[in-house]
Design goal:
Helix content is about 0%, strand content about 55%. The chain is mainly beta and about 80 residues long. A 3-stranded antiparallel beta sheet has the order 1-2-3, with no helix packed on it. It binds zinc ion.
Length: about 80
């Protein structure tokens, strides 16, 4: 279909704060589903309606360093 619309949305796990992105696809018929965090098994997002989410992916964020310089890179 020429008029299918995909948008990428970002979600944050309420349990551990892990960030995920998912692709939202609009549909003519209702869909429902849910996604659970792969780290803490918390429910990151549930949906129902004329859209669906797929392609869940964890967002890799850089670790925060408080009051330190990047003196030594350990990896
Ligand atoms: Zn989590």
């Amino acid at each position: 279909m020429a008029n299918s619309i995909w948008t990428i949305e970002e979600f944050t796990c309420p349990g551990c704060g892990m960030k995920y992105t998912a692709t939202r696809e609009e549909h003519a018929e209702p869909h429902s589903g849910s996604f659970k965090c792969s780290i803490c098994s918390g429910e990151v997002h549930t949906w129902s309606g004329n859209h669906h989410f797929f392609g869940w992916d964890a967002v890799k964020t850089k670790p925060r360093v408080f009051g330190r310089r990047w003196a030594g890179v350990e990896w």
